[in-house]
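User:
Care to share a sequence and structure tokens?

Assistant:
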Amino acid sequence: MESLLLPLFILGAIYFAIRMVNKKGKPTAAASTKLSKISTNIPEEILARQLVILQNDFVDGRFSDEMSTDLILKKNEHLIFDVPGVSLCEERTVKTKGKSKSVRVRVMKGVTVGTGRFEAAPEARVVPIDRGNLTLTNKRVHFAGETKTVDFPLSAMNTIQAFDSGVSVSRSGKTKVEYFLDMDRMSINATITPDDGEDFDPEEITYALNGAECKKIFLEAISRLD
């Protein structure tokens, strides 16, 4: 793949920093990053191009030195990201509400009595089952929680859906969909300065690694599998 260093200089991005922010996400559908809200100074097309470059930099492993991981990498494997405090969730049927059901009981000929019966109503919810580090490499997905460990190759993924703070994944060999939420703890700071012919003031912007951006990084990594 062609080096991304030249486009970085062309766009004038002279500084990057990765930071963790303390946020809590909810499993609601995610929208694409609204670039116009990131900056009112830098043109949207430049922000969009810069975001694509940052996503590719992640997949290339260019930020791996700025993150720590306990995962032992295998031959020809490199770190894309390692996010702590991620919630591993699954859909569970829980009884959360009650409903009253009227029952008529015949006590004698021509006489019936109404009785009330309270029943719990089952409801499907996404519930957390563990919390830990989610690690993505160019080969696999690894989750290390307090009580549960998940490890599977990227090639096993069948579908991926973005939520506001993370993604859900269905994969071969697993009947239930797995949700990885609270991933938006990570953000990237980038200082962008104009190139010749571009008319905007230099500015430090912040890209949040929300569910939509995580999904793009996953898909880019999958597209590069042999």
